[in-house]
From TrEMBL:
Predominant location category: membrane
Quaternary structure and partners: Homotrimer.
UniProt domain Porin: residue ranges: 11-347
Top-level division of the source organism's lineage: Bacteria
Pfam families, alphabetized: Porin_4 (PF13609)
UniProt protein name: Porin
Cited PANTHER family: MAJOR OUTER MEMBRANE PROTEIN P.IA, PROTEIN YDDL-RELATED
Stored Gene3D superfamilies: Porin (2.40.160.10)
Amino acid sequence: MLKKFALAGGVAVSALGAQAAHAQGSMILYGIIDEGLTYTSNQKGSSAVQLQSGKLGGSRWGVKGEEALGNGLSALFNLENGFNATNGTNSAGRMFARTAIVGLSQKGMGTVTFGRQTDSLADIVAPFFGSGYWTPATHIGDNDDMNWYFRVNNSVKLTTETISGFKFSSIYGFSNQAGAFANNREWSAAASYANGPLSFGAGYMLMNHPNSTSNTSGALGGASSSNGDDYGTAFFYGLDGGVARQQVVGTGVGYVVGAAQFGLGYSNVQLDYNDGAQRKLNNLDANLRYRVSAPLSLIADYTFTFGTADHVAGSSEHLKPRWHQLTLGVDYAMSKRTEFYASAEYQLAAGDASIAVGSTLQKFAYIQSSGGPSSSPSQVAVSVGIRHKF
């Protein structure tokens, strides 16, 4: 349960004893600690059993607060640190890698926030995908950011309240580089609508030179190990001399029937590389959440990722990679703060699902929760763990 600490007060002013009352505010300390054991059938050629942090969601702690300014207007802030619970290290080499924002909120309208924060497309559309609520179901390489792989630096984000079922969000991440406005910048916009059991959403995201080596202080962190590169370590991104432009279009629909919640999602990703190479990936996602009882939920997700790859290193062919992934999960809430979970994933690489290894191409599978790619076309990962919220 979140622990709230009220911050309020008055201060004596002037020798005449007059008082000025300060506005009421609040501050919340919160966090998640998530630890699990994972067995992987093939990780770089060998099976592995590992203790891993953040199986269902990154372990974190944070503080957030709000101060009423009058007439429905409030100031707000949020600082959130991610960490590895297995060894206590910070994530991405940053003090507040997950969130660092300040902003304003107007009742009946929405919020505007400034700083390092999540992308609008993922905020609005990811909940329709399995990866949006069950991390092991993440699409290969999180190529569409539907598991919030990265954060956007130097950004301004506008998010409306839900009005008559509609909600809208848009973000712009500045390059912050003089004379190179588009070198490592990002923007996106997305909207959703909910009416009774039916909901749907759609959005678009564009990134220019997101893993730029000449601007490591841009919107996506650039190719920087000291700053904690948000972008360049994922599959597909560091190939062919870096990404010149990435575009993502995503849409999804959800429907609730009794204790069951169904979701269907589709995303299209286009990667244009600095050397002229191009990859296009499509992710089709069908998922189900079913509440058996108050504490017990079952999760199922199937994702089919397919696309094309031109000018791949080591081959002049027009390649057509394919990946199938099935994810099954069980979640049992012992209380409002503590839950136990188990998850099993199977991924099969098909077609030309290959990556360059030296001068040759090797077919591979890579489940998000496995800890590393396989040396074969298939991979199985099984996890059990505990997640505690405070």
